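Reopening this one. Same input as before:
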Amino acid sequence: MKTYDIKGMSCAACVSRVEKAALSVEGVVSASASLVTNSLSVEGGNDNQIIRAVQKAGYGASLSDGKINLGKDNIKKTAVRLAVSTVILLPIMYLSMGGMLGLPVPVKGAPNGAIQAALCLICLAVNGIFFVSGTKGLLHGSPNMDTLITVGSGASFIYSVAALISEFSGSGEKMLYFESAAMIPVFVTIGKLLEAVSRLKTSDALSGLMSMMPETASLKTGEGIKTIPVSEIKPGMSLVVAPGETIPADGTVTEGFTSVDESMLTGESVPVEKTAGDRVSAATVNGAGRVIFTAEKTGSDTTHAKIIKLVADASSSKAPVGRLADRIAAVFVPSVLAVGLVTAIVWFLVSKEIATSLSYGISVLVVSCPCALGLATPVAITVGCGLGAKHGILFRSAEALEQAGKIERAVLDKTGTVTEGRPSVVCSEGDERLYTVALALEAPSEHPLGRAVADFCSDKAELLQITDFTSLPGSGVSGSLDGKKLTGGSIKYMLGAGFDIKNYADKAKELEKSGSTVLAFAENETVCGIVALADSIKPDSAASVGELKSEGIEVFMLTGDSDGPARLIAGKAGIDSVASGILPDGKAKFVSSLRAGGFTAMVGDGINDAPALASADIGFAMAGGTDIAAGAADVLLMNDSLRDFVASIRISKKTLGIIRQNLFWAFAYNLIGIPLAAGCFATLGMHLSPVFCAAVMSVSSIIVVTNSLRINMLDIYKPMPKKARNRKEAERMEVTLKVDGMMCSRCEAHVKNALEKCPQVKSAQADHNTGMVRVELKKNVPTEKLRKIISEAGYTPVE
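Same output, byte for byte:
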């Protein structure tokens, strides 16, 4: 995906034209333009061809240098243009309207009109940006909002000049509209300025992130400390960070001890202690200690830079909810031009007066507002993504932000999501070889259980290097040592591999019932012993699960662990449905099977759970504060907390609500404003002048932007009022059972048919890969009755 800086976009029609131009280039797969960031994101295609296509459509285009344009420079230019325009407009208004107000007007008649014409021409020239853009759009067959202003204001000026010439010819005093011709662009400029300021506020989170990086860094050299620009930092440099300074790059601490404020990454304000060997991230703030660290990632490779890009990309992407507005915007301006022309013709036929018909026609052109339509969705998306980023919740796209509010089912991985993910050994039993075998096998492992075992055994045995190390995800590990084969893994895996663990079976069952995960280790065919580990539940997991349930969301826990420990953790967290003993590929199949019953989210670590995350309707990854590249996830939770998963759902629902309000206003405004301006209700004394229409049009965009800013008022951690479920949800009863013995699709069909013969069962779905059976009930039925049916069918229901 490449990004281009675009100049000249002023409304939704411009966005549509730019996207259409990019999509016309051979090889372009997708294109998304944003009014908020003045950018175009394109997948595929040739850079030069894309730029030429956009320029041909009447807009400026260049390959982005990576800097995000929030329009601050444009605000200054607009403010200066408005000030100059206002100074010129005031004497025009005095000359045209002073007499009606009883004020002395020094010049009257045709000379008065000539002065107005000269001042008006200067005012139009000052606001030439509208006329250049509008004329370009018209000539390129892509009229935009500026085209409407150009035609409206230009028609007023041309008519007034013609009337003034007629006056000088001696045909009598005529009605002049120079003040309208000048006031239209001035009022639009006022609206554009207020809109730009409001839009800048919607990007507060983004601009805040961009301002966090320091401009200089302290480089440690053989001659002392040297100050260098941050842009000159290279990986491998040794940098010094004094107390209170901002860390300029990602790296690893080599000297010193301190605490670092990482709220930029995680949203948590509690400082994190750092010492030699710990990682630090760019844009985080050093506490009271002085540290030296080695730079590893700099510039656009830092976590901070990736967060900015992710938030900017999400803000400039399109949400499905805004597609209707996009389709309407594509034909909006040409339609308004046609309506304005028809209005002018009809009123000329009715009134026989050019001035009257011109007034109504211009009013139609000026009152219509494609800007409100174009801003309705993107500004709300920008604010929503920014609010999430402030709290360590990163949405990869506008679509992810929208989908988070649709979740009906949530599947939570156990280790690292519901629990801390830092298991420790609670018990071990075996012969003298146990610690040597366990240490040799688990030392190369990256799995949390393996690391915990290796740490436990490290002071009890000497580390011996094994060969042919093999790790089977979710099962076990193996390797060779001095010609002997070493094997380790879960009790289920070891039994399946043919190992005899009868000497440890009773102890293993006892430990599993207490909630521990039990691993066995063997040398050749002889089991050396067992090691039991336990993980603790996160402090906020139970409360978060309760809030999910109160939102009407079904919660499932998924784990490769054995059933005993899994159900103990689930019970503590308040989770009723548990799928245990599931391998990584089985997790993906389990999540896929749930999608048939409702919009399903998967929450995991983003790496081990990648297949399951990809199989869900939407995936959430606990990114651990620095892993921005957690690839398969749609949403990254930087703070490793389930409460942020709940908060992301609230942000989504609030943002969607605001978008719907914005779209309603944008459509309602145009549906009411255009008929009023066209004089449809003139017989009732209701008519809008061109000047009033320009003012109202400007206000309509400001209302949309200001309404979007209300998203920032949301307390994302405050539970929403408990909502009553709809009748369908209330009547739907579902039971999920774990069943052993299903080996193939025929077994699935056998279990399904047996259950569906029960009068109270509406439907049943069985999956032999996961061993899970979901039963949807017509009426409540005891679970024991369902288990009995499964047993009679020849299979074993698991407690």
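So the earlier flakiness isn't reproducible anymore. For the record, The mean pLDDT is 84.
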